[in-house]
């Protein structure tokens, strides 16, 4: 990650960290930047869009949005627990119905003893962690390599979980929750930004160990293919909803 040498004490000579033009921190002694020599493909990732400020700012906004939606969904879960027959504000019709989704088993997959816990509760916990990670990124805090890798896997797990719930809602429950869709899209943007930061800021995977993969990912982001894929992904999901459920929605 990016940093200022004064943030980590006095560092002189060959051990002094260097600040890349894209805002990534890399040093021969850095635990988070294995394989970042003079010929690293990541050196071509220059400009504001590949720096820590932009990537982690996008992640922060998406994570805050997801956290707010998780609070709303948690409130609705508590409302249904008190009043099982209550009609929620987002119950528009038979298809667009938050209460139908909230009362399905998929909305509470974690059970402990005789208790079940709404997924939204875990969303609050998870998004709080992602917000913290985004703030660390914006602050250019140095983190161990294993932490960065674990963070990416955690983001992937959240992304896959959100889309599992989406497919269950679309094709099994046959009801759509507007707040759940907002959470899914926020999680999507969050993961896209996190992946971008993992490659361009942290320079993972290592270009020494995974040269071909590192070069491909560097080109993917340098040529802005990620923007095209991100937009196409979101448009495709929205189109799927409209094609499959559009008649019932409107």
A few lines on this structure:
The chain has helices at residues 52-82, 98-102, 119-138, 145-173, 178-200, 211-222, 225-249, and strands at 18-19, 25-26, 110-112, 115-117. With 250 residues, the protein is mainly α.
Describe this structure in words.
- The protein has a domain at 49-204: de novo design (two linked rop proteins).
- It has 250 residues and is mostly helical.
- The longest helix is centred in the N-terminal third of the chain and has 31 residues, at 52-82.
- The chain is built from 7 helices and 4 strands.
- Mean pLDDT is 84; it is low at 1-21 and 26-33.
Secondary-structure element order, as H and E? EEHHEEHHHHH
The CATH architecture category of the domain at 49-204 equals Up-down Bundle
Largest sheet: 2 strands, antiparallel
- What fold name goes in the CATH topology slot of the domain at 49-204? de novo design (two linked rop proteins)
**Given the helix and strand composition, which structural class is it?**
mainly alpha
Can you give the mean pLDDT? 84
Strand fraction band?
under 5%
How far apart lie the N and C ends? Answer: 47 Å
Spatial arrangement of strands, main beta sheet = 1-2
| Helical fraction | 55-70%
What's the total helix number?
Answer: 7
CATH level-1 class of the domain at 49-204: Mainly Alpha
Question: How many DSSP E strands?
Answer: 4
Which labels suit this protein?
250 residues; mainly alpha; de novo design (two linked rop proteins); two-stranded antiparallel sheet; disordered N terminus; redox-active center; quinone
